[in-house]
Amino acid sequence: MPIAAVLAAALLGVTPYNFTVSNVDVVPDLHGNPANAQLVVFAAGNQYMAMHALVAAFQREHPDVKRVFYETLPPGILAKQIEAGALQIGNLVIDPKPDVFLSGKKRMTIERTRGIVGPAHTYATNTLAILVRKGNPKHVYSLRDLGRADVRVAMPNPAWEGVSGQIQAAYRKAGGAALVSTIMVTKRNAGTTLLTKIHHRQSPRWILSGRADAGVVWISEALYQAKVTGRLAVVKIPASENATAIYQAAVITKAPHPAAAKAFVTFLTGARARAIYASYGFTTGGSHS
Question: What is the dihedral of CA 50, 53, 55, 61, to 10 degrees?
Fold first, then answer.
């Protein structure tokens, strides 16, 4: 049975008819059945690689929660979906009501101020790295190299991807305001800085296809993509130029399934979830904020 069918069966409790057409009818950031879910999780997209293992481990501890639906989109998009009450992708419109929100601390603070979520709990952190093609054909060894005119950079859109601000902060540490301006203004105008809409999906694909030469992503994403593709490589960024993401989880104030939501947030700060996150390159820990 194909892995996608195995995942679907685990999330839905049934084996659905699979009509997936490669590169056409594929929605990689929606997982499970939103219609009858007993737990709905909206998770920051950069955690997509860990979510199946997390949900499976949670269900082993809570076998009564058999049907889980989760999304792994940029937190800014998830926030807009919560505000709108529904999400449209092509001809598909869904309106799942989330129980749990996972995002970076800055976005979580915004949503808590708006009354969308309750108390936040920190469960993991992350740092940045540069993703390039295997063999590093453009000889990108530092953030400053991303300012070169011959290097095409995949960059998250500042309009809704919080990581954009952290990447720009890293640029500033490495090369001051001049490097930020070069990458975000000069090269964008020249067409050599390319803004993504779903950074955790588009950046590796653009680099693999040759549309971009490099992109700054979270180290967990870089390590995962290098491993699963065998065609990408990781360039590390020194601590003096790096930025740290603090990931938090909170129960949605109007969660349809508050008991399951609280159980999932508690699970995320526990030893099993920390081990899963660590296995994907995250740094783990937990606290209230």
Answer: -140
Higher pLDDT, 14 or 102: 102
Indicate whether 116 and 136 sit together in one domain. Answer: no
Residue with structure tokens 């998250």?
Answer: 156
Task: Determine the average pLDDT of the residues in 252-261.
Answer: 99
Residue whose C-alpha is closest to residue 68's, from 80, 57, 83, 79: 57
Q: Clarify whether residues 61 and 112 are in a common domain.
A: yes
pLDDT at 288 over 50: no
Number of domains in the chain: 2
pLDDT of residue 7 exceeding 80, the answer is no
How many angstroms separate the CA atoms of 199 and 24, rounded?
19
CATH number of the domain that 30 lies in?
A: 3.40.190.10
pLDDT band at 114 (very low <50, low <70, confident <90, very high): very high
* Residue 236 CA: distances (Å) to CA of 32, 68, 94, 134, 185: 35, 35, 39, 14, 24
* Among 8, 35, 10, CA closest to 19: 8
Its domain, for residue 37, covers 3-124+245-288
Same domain assignment for residues 100 and 23: yes
Rounded Cα distance between 274 and 283, Å, is 8
Answer yes or no: do 262 and 222 share one domain. Answer: no
Contact at 8 Å (CB) between 39 and 257? yes
- Determine which helix (DSSP H) or strand (DSSP E) holds 173, and give its type and residue range: helix 163-181
Rounded distance between C-alpha atoms, residue 49 and residue 52, angstroms:
7
Backbone φ and ψ for 179, nearest 5 degrees, come out as -70, -40
Q: Are residues 120 and 7 in the same domain?
A: yes
Residues 118 and 166 in one domain: no
Answer yes or no: pTM beyond 0.85: yes
235 close to 141: Cβ distance less than 8 angstroms: yes
Residue 127 scores a pLDDT above 90: yes
